[in-house]
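Input.
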Amino acid sequence: MSTLALLGGTPVRDRLFPAYKVIGPEEVEAAKAVLDSGILSKFLGTWHADFYGGPEVQAFEAEWAAAFKAGFAVSVNSATSGLYAAVGAAGVGPGDEVIVSPYTMSASAAAALVYNAVPVFADIDPATYCLSAETIRARLTPRTRAVVVVHIFGQSADMDPIMALAAEHGLTVIEDCAQAPFATYRGRPVGTLGHMGVFSLNYHKHIHTGEGGVVTTNDERLAEKLQLIRNHAEAVLAAKGGTADLVNMIGFNYRLGEIEAAIGRSLLKKGPALIAQRRANVAAIEAGLAGIDFLTMPTVGPGNEHVYYVHVLGYDAARAGVKRDTFVRALKAELKPCELREGEGPLVGQGYVKPLYLQPIYQQRIGYGTTGCPFTCPHYGGTVSYAPGLCPNVEHAHATIITHELMRPPITQADIADVVAAFHKVADNLSALRDWERAQG
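Output.
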C-alpha cells in the first residue's frame, strides 16, 4: 500500500489536467469575421430598427430559441442580468416575496433584492439538490409573487408539480438554467418548463462566450418586457408606443456584444457533443468508484437527463471513519490543478456554496441604504427567517457532499484513470488518515 501524498508519499498524478478550453478555430473565425465587419455592437437605446441589436445577436437569439424549443430567446450580458431582467419582467416589486433555493450562486436570490422584494429560502430535495413543490409550498405566503427554481449541478427540478403549484397560486416561475443547458425533463428542455428560463454563457459553463447569458420564454409579452429591461426601457417606451404596462420599465444596459454572439452561435452547434462527452466521463468515473462504500453517486431524478456541470458525491463520514474535509484534503494532495486555473489547486471541493441565507446581507438585513430596505420596507408586511437551521437538507448537503469538475472536456480516459486511482488510494489508506486526523487534534 503506497503512502498518501498528504503524509509524504508520491502523488498519483504529476502533471496538470487539461484546461477547460472549448474554443477552437471555428470560434476564432467567427470572432474575426465580426472584427472584420467593424460592427462590434449595433444596439441603440432608443426606439429604432437597431433596438434589438446587430445581426449576430439576432441570429444567435433565433438559433438559441430553435435549439431549446422556445418561442423567444433574449440575449443578455450575463446570467445575473438575465435573472434581474426576468424578475423585473415578472412584475416583482416592493412588498413581494420571491422563493428561491439557498444552494446556488448569490444572483439567484439577489434578483429579488434588485426590485426591493424579499428573498424567501426554501429547502431542497435531498436527492437532486433542487427545490421541490413540497418545499416551495412550505414557504408560500400571500406576498409570494415568483419562484426562482435552480436546476443545480446540471439536472432539472421536478417541474410538473412545481408548475401545478404555481398555477394554483398565480406565481411566475423562473428557471435558473445556468448549470443545465441541454438538460431535459420528461423529454422537454429546461428553460421551457417555467415562464422564463435563464442560461449562463460565463467562461466555465457548458457553452461560454467569456461572459453572457440568454433568457428563454414562450410568452410574447414577457419577451417584450425582457427586451425593454435589457435596453433602457424608460427611454424607449414613449416612442415605441403600445406598452401600457410601466411596471419595472426602468431599463438597464444588459446588452450582449456581436463578438460574444458570434462565438455563442458557433459553440451552440458543439453543445450536444460536449454534453455527451461529460456524460461519458461521468459514467467512467462512477464505474471506477463503485466499490468505495462510503461514497454515493448522484441521483438522477425520474425523467431527467443530467448534463453534469459538476459531479456531486455523497460522503458517509461515519462509514469512512474520517471527516469529509480530511478525505478531500488527502484526495487533493494526490492530484494536480487544471491548466489556466493553477492557483485554485485540484478542482475538488466540499459542500459547494455556503447556504445563501447565512451571508451577511441576510444575517444583518442590510440592503438599500442604512435602514434595512427591503427587509424593513414599509411596503413589506411580512416576516422572514434567515436563521441557521432554516433549510436542514441544504445544510446537511453542505456538510457532507464532495464536488469535482474533473469530467469536463477535454478530460481523457487516462485523466479519469488518475482521478479514480486517487480516490482509491485515499480509501485504501483510511487507517493512516485517521491517525493523521487524530494527531491534528
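The CA atoms of residues 351 and 399 lie 6 Å apart.
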